[in-house]
Specification:
The chain has three helices and no strands. With 82 residues, it is mostly helical. 16% of the residues are buried. Helix 2 packs antiparallel against helix 3. 57% of the residues lie in helices and 0% in strands.
Length: 82
């Protein structure tokens, strides 16, 4: 028995932008609108590297975790062959 074929569901880059814009940890990062995965990763990694306080590091880690979740959504639900 096989599981559901999630690849039949299709999201767009605009959908990912909408989802990302609702994540407080990503609110101020470039790459959210318009969606740009590479810019978003770069901004979050820069924030982590430049973090000086425990709170800044925690915020950067939350952003990195959110981006990892968005990457999973991107891989499963966004068609890139168009």
């Amino acid at each position: 028995m096989s599981g559901p074929d999630f690849r039949k569901r299709v999201l767009t880059a605009d959908d990912l932008s909408l989802i990302a814009s609702e994540v407080p940890a990503l609110a101020d990062f470039p790459g959210v609108r318009p969606w740009n995965r590479d810019k978003l990763w770069a901004a979050a990694l820069d924030a982590f590297i430049e973090a000086r306080t425990k709170d800044q590091r925690a915020a950067a880690q939350q952003a990195l975790g959110a981006i990892q979740a968005l990457d999973a959504i991107d891989r499963l639900f966004v068609r890139h062959d168009r």
